[in-house]
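Reviewers of the previous submission asked for a worked example of the structure-prediction workflow described in the proposal, so we include one complete record here. The input consisted solely of the amino acid sequence. No template or homolog information was supplied to the procedure at any stage.
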Amino acid sequence: MRDRHRMAALIGVSVPTLDRMVSAAEIPSLTIGNRRLFDADAVIEALTRRASE
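From that input alone, the workflow returned the following C-alpha cells.
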C-alpha cells in the first residue's frame, strides 16, 4: 500500500491530479482513518484499462 505522495510519484502525476482521479473514480483507493492508501497494482491495472478504452 502506498500513500498519496508515493502513488502520485509512481504514476507520474501531481498529488492534486491524483486526488481528482480518486474523486472521479478513475482509480481505486482505500481510506483508513484519515489516510488514503493505494494498491499500486490495482491503480496501474485501472489506468491500463482506461487507456485501452
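DSSP finds three helices and two strands in the chain. We consider this example representative of the routine output the project will generate in years two and three.
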